[in-house]
# Entry
Amino acid sequence: METTKGTSNYLARAFAIGFGAGRMPLAPGTWGALEGLAVVFLIHTYLPSQSTLVLAVLCLILGALAIWASDQVARSLRNPDPQQVVADEIVGQMSCFLWVPVTTWTLIAGFVLFRVFDISKPFPAGRAEHLPGGLGIIADDLVAGLYAGVVLKLASLYLVQPA
# Structure
């Protein structure tokens, strides 16, 4: 049984820290968001006709895993929201593109908007952060991602004119 628990803890930590991004010395959350952006880019590039469905399913699965993994790491470190946990940024960044067409412009703007909303935590993101355990770690980033997605969607509808 000890081996299973050790493996489970290792997997939780590896996933929660974004397989190393959370250990970057400067701005680990930014590196985690870049990992989420890379996932969006790869899905859009290799599965363009199913990218929205695949992204939605992946957000659900990775979101659930992120809640579990973040909770495990937070408990083991005795820190309610450890800086090295970046699974929340990965999933939050991905959620930004659920209803937004993926282009070079939206990838760049989505990244910047997500980081702005993630750092500033406008209502209710700041409140969501106070939910218990892994849910609180992930919830504020999902809100930030959804805010960024709404801004991007509105910009793509009203500011960007088709050629």
Q: What stands out?
A: The CA atoms of residues 16 and 87 lie 5 Å apart. Residues 31-157 form one domain. The chain has a mean pLDDT of 91. The helical segments are 2-16, 28-46, 51-77, 87-95, 104-120, 125-128, 133-158.
